[in-house]
Inverse folding.
């Protein structure tokens, strides 16, 4: 787990959405599966929607993404699931079955809604944010906190590892990318 | 009303190299009638069969995907009708066995047995929609249902079947997932 970053919280700084999108592309991602998330709406989802190198599939409910990404993985197509932490929580059973028990390469980029980037998610006063990392730990899912530009370097290795080992990964967006 | 196994026996005559996504009672009937490497029965969470099917169809647009979903499963993922219609994969056929019960969970009724899945799929924007309750009609139309440009949807009105044996370790066998992947990727 990315305990160093989690313990430190998001240091003061900025998060450049274009760098994240470049890292997503460098990771071989072809499909982005998403329900809109206000944390990543302006900095990621809107530019991705206009990016011809990525195919955006808008779904109605977050757990659909888990099934779609699984189907794509059987075709050796890489997908990134771009959702809010509330949608992650709503999709736990699908993640449990498909990502964890079936050991599928389900890559999730999860916006932490109303999170203070100066705090570690575990220290958040918001219950919904505070429980995300402990749930991921209990499920045995590798996770990384992406709060400042320096964290963007974690994205490609994390996605490559998920596909190489056929296992899920969660990239927690701790600050709204600009 | 049709018997689901009778319906699937007719369907099996028309299936060649398609991926067939099936779960719960539909999967039990299907794998008995048509055991094949391109059966995809590891869904992981009830309702996601249609979403797995969409992923498979997107990833292999040159191949056809047939989803055999139960009515209870589709009710858990009704939004997938809208998603699939919006993505509009031409190679996806979505068949829903409507027996008005959660058959795998004790045979309890779904919240409303009168729900009109075909109307929902039509309103969502599927390219073609069928509502089939008679075995002769199904036999006459199944080839066209499978071959036309999708996404295609059909409600199959079926009776609750005889008690089934749910062999989940076999349906969810990791070796079958591995074999499916190899076969699905190998075909040119």
């Amino acid at each position: 787990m990315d305990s160093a970053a989690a313990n430190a919280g998001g240091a003061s700084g900025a998060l450049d959405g274009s760098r994240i999108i470049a890292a997503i592309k460098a990771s071989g991602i072809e499909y982005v599966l998403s329900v809109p998330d206000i944390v990543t709406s302006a900095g990621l989802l809107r530019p991705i929607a206009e990016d011809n190198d990525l195919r955006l599939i808008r779904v109605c409910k977050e757990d659909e993404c888990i099934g779609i990404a699984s189907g794509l993985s059987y075709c050796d197509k890489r997908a990134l699931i771009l959702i809010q932490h509330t949608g992650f929580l709503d999709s736990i059973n699908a993640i449990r079955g498909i990502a964890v028990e079936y050991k599928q390469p389900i890559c999730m980029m999860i916006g932490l809604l109303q999170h203070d980037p100066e705090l570690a998610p575990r220290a958040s006063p918001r219950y919904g944010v505070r429980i995300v990392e402990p749930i991921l730990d209990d499920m045995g899912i590798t996770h990384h906190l992406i709060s400042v530009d320096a964290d963007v370097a974690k994205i490609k290795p994390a996605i490559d590892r998920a596909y190489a080992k056929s296992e899920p990964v969660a990239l927690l967006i701790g600050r709204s990318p600009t | 009303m049709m018997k689901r196994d009778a319906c699937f026996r007719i369907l099996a005559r028309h299936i060649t190299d398609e991926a067939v996504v099936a779960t719960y009672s539909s999967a039990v009937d299907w794998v008995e009638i048509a055991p094949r490497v391109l059966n995809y029965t590891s869904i992981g969470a009830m309702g996601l069969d249609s979403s797995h099917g969409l992923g498979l169809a997107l990833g292999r647009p040159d191949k056809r995907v047939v989803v055999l979903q139960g009515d209870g499963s589709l009710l858990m993922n009704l939004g997938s009708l809208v998603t699939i219609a919006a993505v509009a994969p031409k190679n996806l056929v979505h068949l829903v066995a409507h027996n008005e019960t959660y058959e795998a969970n004790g045979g309890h009724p779904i919240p409303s047995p009168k729900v009109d899945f075909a109307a929902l799929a039509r309103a969502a924007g599927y390219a073609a929609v069928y509502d089939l309750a008679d075995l002769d009609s199904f036999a006459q139309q199944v080839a066209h249902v499978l071959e036309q440009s999708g996404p295609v949807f059909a409600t199959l009105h079926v009776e609750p079947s005889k008690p089934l044996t749910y062999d989940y370790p076999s349906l969810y066998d990791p070796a079958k997932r591995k074999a499916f992947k190899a076969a699905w990727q190998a075909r040119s």
